[in-house]
């Protein structure tokens, strides 16, 4: 599963990456996580606010921190 965390590297972006890795590990889901900090690459996803979470090319959330439950549901459906 390909996961991208979109953001500048701020504390919220770092927390989203950590939380996503935790949820994936707890669920036993193999993930490849990439933290995208390049503004031009972030804009390719049409994301205007960060942090953002992209799973297999689909933006799941942008501009807020999702709950562990939300991330778990997204990982389960992907």
Q: How does this model look, in words?
A:
With 78 residues, the protein is of the alpha+beta class. The chain has a single domain, classed as Glutaredoxin, CATH 3.40.30. Helices cover 41% and strands 24% of the residues. The protein contains three helices and four strands; from the N terminus they run E-H-E-H-E-E-H. It has helices at residues 11-27, 39-43, 68-77; strands at 2-6, 32-36, 52-55, 58-62. It has a four-stranded mixed sheet. Strand 1, helix 1 and strand 2 (32-36) form a beta-alpha-beta unit. Helix 1 (11-27) packs across helix 3. The model has no long low-confidence stretch (mean pLDDT 95).
List the helices and strands and how they pair.
Blueprint lengths: L1 E5 L4 H17 L4 E5 L2 H5 L8 E4 L2 E5 L5 H10 L1
Parallel strand pairs: 1-2
Antiparallel strand pairs: 1-3, 3-4
Helix pairs in contact: 1-3
What are the salient characteristics of this protein?
single chain; 3 helices; 78 residues; alpha+beta; Glutaredoxin
Order of helices and strands: EHEHEEH
CATH topology: Glutaredoxin
Output the radius of gyration: 11 Å
Shape: globular
Structural class by sheet pairing and helices = alpha+beta
Strand order of the largest sheet: 2-1-3-4
Poorly predicted runs are: none
* Overall domain count: 1
User: How much helix, percentage-wise, in residues?
Assistant: 40-55%
What is the averaged pLDDT score? 95
In the CATH hierarchy, what is the class?
Alpha Beta
Specify the CATH homologous superfamily: Glutaredoxin
Please outline what is shown here:
With 78 residues, the protein is an alpha+beta fold.
């Amino acid at each position: 599963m390909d996961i991208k965390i979109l953001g500048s590297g701020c504390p919220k972006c770092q927390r989203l990456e950590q939380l996503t890795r935790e949820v994936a590990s707890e669920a036993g889901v193999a993930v490849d996580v990439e933290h995208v900090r390049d503004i031009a690459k972030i804009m390719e996803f049409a994301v205007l606010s960060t942090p953002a979470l992209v799973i297999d090319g689909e933006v799941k959330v942008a501009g807020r921190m999702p709950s562990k439950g939300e991330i778990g549901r997204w990982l389960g459906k992907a």
